[in-house]
Automatic annotation (TrEMBL):
Keywords: Ligase. It holds the Pfam family AMP-binding. Residues 35-192 form the AMP-dependent synthetase/ligase domain. The keyword Ligase applies. GO terms for biological process: fatty acid metabolic process. Belongs to the ATP-dependent AMP-binding enzyme family. The keyword Ligase applies. It comes from the Bacteria. PANTHER family: ACYL-COA SYNTHETASE, MEDIUM-CHAIN ACYL-COA LIGASE ACSF2, MITOCHONDRIAL. It comes from Butyricimonas faecalis. This is AMP-dependent synthetase. GO terms for molecular function: medium-chain fatty acid-CoA ligase activity.
Length: 343
């Protein structure tokens, strides 16, 4: 099968000769990309339910890749890094961006520390927060991360702690907003540098509005479907900028007060070194009550009371968790997004 892609400095024109030199998942995607069908098969993340199989139109993937290539000035001389599985949309799109731009794609096996053996200068990389945090934890990989020219970070939320750490590196870092259905990101948020902001900005001709639930509606004229209604509650600045507040599915109605778990989490993150999440339980008086779940062995009563005292200083009475639970290990999606279930 005839193909045209540059991988690890070598131009490949034939899929059969490529198969023995790259990860099977890459050659499998390329075989699917160059076949006669108008789509490839993708899977949703599974963060809000069972992962679903979804058909991704190749013309949508091309349109999305062009938006990214244009914004980040990806060209034939660029080095792109593929360190996410091509089984998922983020990995698939790095390959498509490479094909369209004629750039060189440097491939490494997906891991928590993908930069360990990288010697080349990287112009553009897509990472999940766990990979960024792990890279920053070692002086060698932190130096390599800082040398990457542009980084997009997606798949899960960037914690306040990680965001603070990224202020210290020169690489331009962007949070992404998108989903499998929108064929990767349709909006970006600058995380570090002078232009850093809590607001996402639209790419290309994408525009936003919100529905009666205060949830984001996306208008993406470059895609076949064009309009997407989400379950993401947002603060709309204008038709091309929004601030993400949390998931509609996660909102807690406690005594008639709406609580946004993700916003509470960002405020209390400095107080809890372990991973954690805020969720709810039924309550006879309030309807729902906020509870805190920490990824740890159980704490002593004294430790829990000390934390509750700290929480009272930065949260409103309704926001303060009414219970604290502990789990040895959280379940998570492929990209590292915590699945918010009490076990």
């Amino acid at each position: 099968m005839g193909i045209n892609i540059k991988l690890n400095g070598i131009q490949h024109k034939n899929l059969e000769t490529l198969k023995n030199s790259v990860d099977p998942d890459i050659s499998s995607f390329l075989q699917e990309w160059y076949d006669s069908h108008d789509h490839v098969i993708g899977h949703t993340s599974g963060s809000t339910g069972i992962p679903k199989e979804i058909r991704l139109l190749k013309k949508d993937m091309i349109a999305s890749a062009r938006l990214t290539n244009e914004f980040f000035n990806i060209r034939p001389s660029s080095n792109l890094l593929l360190c996410l599985s091509p089984k998922y949309i983020a990995g698939k799109m790095m390959i498509v961006r490479t094909i369209l731009s004629g750039a060189n794609l440097i491939t490494v096996k997906p891991s928590s520390s993908p930069l360990q053996n990288i010697t080349e200068d990287i112009d553009f990389a897509a990472l999940v927060p766990m990979q960024v945090a792990t890279s920053l934890s070692s002086p060698d990989t932190a130096t390599k991360l800082a040398r990457v020219k542009q980084i997009i970070i997606g798949g899960a939320a960037v914690s306040p702690t990680l965001e603070q750490q990224l202020q210290q590196i020169p690489a331009a870092c962007y949070g992404t907003y998108g989903m499998t259905e929108t064929v990767s990101h349709i909006a970006l948020r600058q995380i570090n540098g002078e232009g850093s902001s809590p607001y996402y900005f639209a790419l290309g001709k994408v525009t936003f509005e919100k529905d009666e639930r205060e949830c984001l509606i996306i208008h993406a004229p470059h895609l076949q479907q064009q309009t997407f209604v989400t379950n993401d509650i947002i603060q709309l600045a204008d038709t091309t900028h929004f601030e993400w507040l949390g998931r509609y599915d996660n909102v807690i109605n406690s005594g008639g007060i709406k609580l946004f778990p993700e916003k509470i989490e960002s405020r209390i993150a400095p107080l809890i070194p372990q991973r954690f999440f805020i969720t709810s339980e039924p309550d006879s008086r309030l309807g729902q009550k906020a509870v805190l779940v920490i990824e740890s062995a159980s704490w002593s009563s004294t430790e829990c009371q000390k934390l509750l005292g700290q929480l009272r200083s930065c949260l409103s009475p309704y926001e303060i968790p009414k219970e604290i639970y502990f789990q040895e290990h959280f379940n998570e999606t492929y990209s590292g997004k915590i699945i918010r279930k009490i076990e």
